[in-house]
Amino acid sequence: MKILSPMKVLAFAVSAALLLACASPPKVKYRAGNLTAPCPKRTYMEVHYCPTKYAYSGELQHLSKVKITSLETGKSLTLHVRRNNKVKGLCIPKKYKHFMSKKNRFKARVEVLRCGENGKRNCPKYLRGYASWYGPKFHGRRMASGTRFNMHDYIAAHRSLPFGTLLLVKNLKNGKTVKVKVLDRGPYVRGRHLDLSYAAAKKLGMIKDGVIPFVAEVIRCGG
């Protein structure tokens, strides 16, 4: 039996380690961020009027039910607020101008009576289940969050997570990952837990499979 020299043994060990590293890359660990949706119980905002039939804000969860009290007149009203990241403070329909304040802008106390559309404030750290995808048939349609669906964006649909929630989704069949934002509701097919846009599905390499097992980490709860 031939005995290898210590130098040859060391060289063999280094080569084996390099091959192993190439074959199975090190796992990247992601840390979950804030797991509570931004729904302050009470806050103060600058309110202005907008020529729409809905109220909008970039600081509250989509479809939150809020009580708005004018600090100028003391009058209040209860509205459902839609999420719009471009709106600073709070924008309410112009039809309330005669009631709340005649000024174009005024300060108000805002109390969140219900967080988002389902009152959900907290998110789990991880999600597991089966994911499907949707694309051309729904491209351009309005999503449950109020924005238009673009199949080329990294979007996800979930039944109850607050809109704006960021997920890091991993395809358990091939190890590929993608970061998506929850902006829609679904899937409503039994046994499926997440619906992904065409772009997200393509990055995960699941277009042909259609449905894949996944694990997702919640990077941010709500947005």
Per-chain topology:
Layout: H1 6-23, E1 42-50, E2 55-57, E3 64-70, E4 76-83, E5 90-93, H2 97-100, E6 105-114, E7 126-134, E8 155-157, E9 166-171, E10 177-184, E11 194-197, H3 198-204, E12 212-220
Parallel strand pairs: 1-5, 2-4, 7-11, 8-10
Antiparallel strand pairs: 1-6, 2-5, 3-4, 3-6, 7-12, 8-11, 9-10, 9-12
Please give a structural write-up.
- There is one protein chain.
- With 223 residues, the chain is mostly beta strands.
- The chain folds into 2 domains: 42-114, Barwin-like endoglucanases (Beta Barrel); 126-220, Barwin-like endoglucanases (Beta Barrel).
- The protein is built from 3 helices and 12 strands, in the order αβββββαββββββαβ.
- The strands form 2 sheets. The chain has a 6-stranded mixed barrel with strand order 1-5-2-4-3-6. It has a 6-stranded mixed β-barrel with strand order 7-11-8-10-9-12.
- Strand 9 (166-171) and strand 10 (177-184) form a beta hairpin.
- The longest helix is centred in the N-terminal third of the chain and has 18 residues, at 6-23.
- The termini are far apart.
Structure at a glance:
This protein folds into two domains: 42-114, RlpA-like domain (Barwin-like endoglucanases, Beta Barrel); 126-220, Barwin-like endoglucanases.
